[in-house]
Fold this protein.
Amino acid sequence: MNETHNRALKSFVEVPQEHDFPIQNLPYCAFRRPDEEQPRVGARIGDFVLDLKILEHAGYFKDTALGDTHVFCKWALNKFMAQGRAAWHGARARISELLRYDNPTLRDDEKLREKALLPIERVELQMPVEIGDYTDFYSSKHHAFNVGTMFRGPENALMPNYLWVPVGYHGRASSVVLSGTPIRRPFGQTKADDADAPVFGPSRLLDFELEMGFLTGPGNELGEPIPIERAEEHIFGMVIVNDWSARDIQKWEYVPLGPFLGKNFATSISPWVVTMEALEPFRCAGAEQDPEPLEYLRIRHEATKPQSHAGERSGSGVQGSAYDIQLEVDLKTGTLERPHVLCRSNFKHLYWSMVQQLAHHTASGCNIRPGDLMASGTISGPTPESFGSMLELSWRGTKPIELPNGEQRRFIADGDTITMRGWCEGDGYRIGFGECEGKLLPAKGSGS
Ligand code: MN
């Protein structure tokens, strides 16, 4: 860990305690200034966005590993992500330095500060990354077990491959949308168990999936796998992902090739890309894996300690391939007074870690490119409060969720809003992801 992680570090930009975006975080975004058509790259501090294009043009990154490469004037993060770890660290260290309370460079240059630091309400957030490919894993054993139990019973819940293969499928990048984008209830084929033939119509079992995704940095050549020891060099940062799912469409279509229309209508991501460097203090041991994975998926030096603490800043660094990220999902309906918390989970509950996912994904020689999105799969924990989908929370609709105003939900209703939050709790500060939110609109042609 380095100076950017120092928990005593303060910015001249005031950031309240418990705020998602203190100087230790500095996530990236793409945004539009009120006076500019073209999006550009920024970093978040407190309730402000720091315009990195302006700083780049003023030469503030020239003496970092970025050198003369212009990456922040682009309309998404891809070019920056392609530069690799030394450049990522150089940029973060410089941004952190410029925002420090005791550095006059930006603090006392009123003209530059006015131009470069924009109140969050004055910017329009954009998709942070041009996502070339989207892969969705299935890495929560608890989730796989729950879903398997519902459909096959507890004895056959886990498929025979589950503890050997980080299972995943290739998703659809074109329908990944920014938090806040409304989601249309999709149409598709569904078939009731006792019906002779399927029908075509709006999905009736619309669900969320609480996931997190990592975004890739430098790619690999086609035919050249990324070995697990080098996987971290290819992971830039993370976002919250809601992998909206139409359970009834999925159920009818998924054999033998996996999900199709049940998943391809929308996937939401949060706008702030939190870097792996910012998450470093929150590394922790991953799930115990039994059987031991095959050689190419084996992680060496997994910590024996169950969890790290951000306060411990020993030079040896924290080991582990998982991250302690708390997650929460809430529901707003047209009539609820306050949002209702549906579940609380944690990213560390996953069975397969990100480096294993990436090593497996590329083991065939498949190439990744800067800006690919790799989502975790639904992050369910071991307890019913930590289940990461309506399918599990209402146990396939058999146990309706009771809301405080007497309403019930088995799945998501038209007009409902689902909001996901994620954060790491540090010693005196938090590293937050902000929100990933989406409101469900009625199917096309049925009302509004
Ligand atoms: Mn999913």
